[in-house]
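Why predict the complex rather than its parts? Because the way molecules touch one another can change local conformation, and only a joint prediction can capture that. The input here totals 847 residues.
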Amino acid sequence: MGRYVIRRLLQMIPVFIGATLLIFLMVNVMGDPVAGLCGERQCDPATAAQLKREFGLDKPVWRQYLTYMGNVFTGDFGTAFNGQKVTELMGTAFPVTIRLTVVAIVLEIVLGIALGVLTGLRRGRPVDTGVLLLTLVVISVPTFVTGLLLQLLLGVEWGWIKPSVSAYATVDELIVPGLVLASVSLAYVTRLTRTSLAENRRADYVRTAIAKGLPRRRVVVRHLLRNSLIPVVTFIGTDVGALMGGAIVTERIFNIHGVGYQLYQGILRQNTQTVVGFVTVLVLVFLAANLLVDLLYAVLDPRIRYA
Amino acid sequence: MRTATHATWAACAVAAALAATACGGGGGGGDKAVLTSSWGDPQNPLEPADTNEVQGGKVLDMIFRGLKRYDPETGEAKNMLAERIETRDSRNFTVTVRDGWTFSNGEKVTARSFVDAWNYGASLRNNQKNAYFFAYIDGYDKVHPEDGSKQSADTLSGLKVTGERTFTIRLGQTFSTFPDTLGYPAFAPLPRAFFDDHDAWLRKPVGNGPYTIRSYAKGALMGLRKRDDYPGADKARNGGVDLIVYTDNNTAYTDLMSGNLDLVDDIPAAQLKNVRTDLPGRYLNEPAGILQTLAFPHYDKDWSGSGSEKVRTGLSMAIDREQITKTIFRKTRTPATDWTSPVLGADGGYRAGLCGDACEYHPKEAKKLIEEGGGLPGGQVKITYNADTGSHKEWVDAVCNSVNNALDDDRACVGNPVGTFADFRSRIGDRKMSGPFRAGWQMDYPLIQNFLQPLYYTNASSNDGKWSSEEFDALVDRANGETDTATAVGLFQQAEAVVRDDMAAIPLWYQNGSAGYSDRLSNVRLNPFSVPVYDQITVG
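Output of the joint prediction:
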């Protein structure tokens, strides 16, 4: 187990370096970021040169990358063009996005699995067909449409919620955006759980459990669900990273100042430091979530062992 | 035992997730006299000499007052902190600062507050992007050497404090309207706190204006409150303003519709057609000092040869400005007929119709002129623009359509989008343009000089097309040396005629400022810089 974890952690190093290098190069080919700082005019050459020197942009790209990585390992993610430390930006953006992601994941797990169990156990009944149809609609409608529609209906027409999230982004404000963010994944979780449950219902161990005379509840929760959740856990685990990085659209609609907002602004302003910094952290989150998922397999299915 | 270990792993994951939700604070208390307004995150640190865009400028306009201030209605430069600014030769100025002004931290505003601030702004070491505003002052080349070499002085030799409330300015050349430029935020005074603890000041800027900053969460929210001890006549008529950063102006508009926001000063293009019914009587569409043009790469031999001015004039005549401003912009733009802006007023140098036929839609003549001039270089023009902001694609496509129709050629004109503004600017800086490109100009101060010199003077900072004309330069020099304003304006207009005759850039339209507000507010107006006049707004 321990060795497995160590091996996985070591595997992360090349992935991490490759991902950051790619992002670094991509942001760099977009051209000279200092040119965009002076509005509709040429920055005066002396100030531009000095700014480039200060941000290290006068060095060749490989040197920039090495310096940057060196700094990252000491916890210095550089400074954005507006004079704020990138770590400071992260300090304000990540808590917001993590809250949003947690809301989304919780909704995904609670609603998705509940609906999945409901439909999986009642295959072919009206409730099953109804939920299946609904998930199909949710999956086929783009997130921004769902988001704008809910915002308009709940926020403006009915006045149940405020159309945008305040600067504090408290959990109760994030429920609707979280639902929008989770909607597509939620539909997938429902469908995955349903299929997996339906398949395992016919498995030998379930029949044995029923034959033993175990109560139905215990059969479903302890035996059936636990085994059926493996693909669902994989999906949710990888979704953690995807939700955090993919929140740009939802964050924009509801005016949430999280990671998506910072990335969007960083890209528009060609702010290498911000973009690479945030993506680096997202890469780490992704890797960690994947490792966690693999370890959770063993919890769910005792047949899986790591050596 | 193994199961137990696994359980711990899972528990940790859940704990970490829950811990994240635990942070975050409560909402702000609702003060009835405080209004909320949409805002964009300032691109640069919020220092007067480092802020060159509207969003940061909005804040500076609320927390600072300079020697002069532009009248929110007429744009005229009026004395604010200046008791008087005297000169005999348009080169040496003596400034007397009014008595009784203080910063919101209690410090007195003195001559030194100005001189220190200007020296800071001009010094190369401080990376201030508006440093070139001080370039007229004597000694600028010492504190800000153009080639980026080490600066040989820390302070401008042209600035001298002569008393507690007086200082003198010596310029490198005569510049009659110089005092009128002093309303630009870069010329604001700064308190000692700015220099003593710069980081603290940046976290919560302190100025001498009608508002003070109560709280500032960068990238999210700024709470400004009325300053009760404000000595000026333009005291805030509301309790304060909360500026809220919006990533998307559509969200701000939705918030305004639902009563969650009081003021939006950027109506999304998609909403223009229903804004009048959405906000009956609460929609503003007022002229602002913004002119959109198409600039040309005069460094490219295709656009610098003789006859190329005919091609440019022909292109200008092939653009149906009337139609485009009506259908695409819903009259939030007005077809341009000169190279300045209506906000200057006739006395200030705006002259409607100076462009004449060349800015009207005459498709037949357009075709003839372009043929006379040798046809379009390479048979096609590509209009380059940045696609990330300002929905430029729509109008560039419309302009191209109009040109194609006039020339009876489907391939005469195409749009050429560039991904980001920064990339667009760096291509312009590297002289990589091969055809016309989008150029917008938002005035720094309401003077005709500001619409001409920075854009068309040889090697000026915003002369992106590198157009150059000795005649133009000479006229501008003469105008700057003239002490009589009317004569100076006349000379500038002559210079403008030189721009017209060579069609150095094609004027497209004057841009209006637009805003919408909730029924809680009254007395909302936009100044010539398209920024709401916050201090005059009344709530309730």
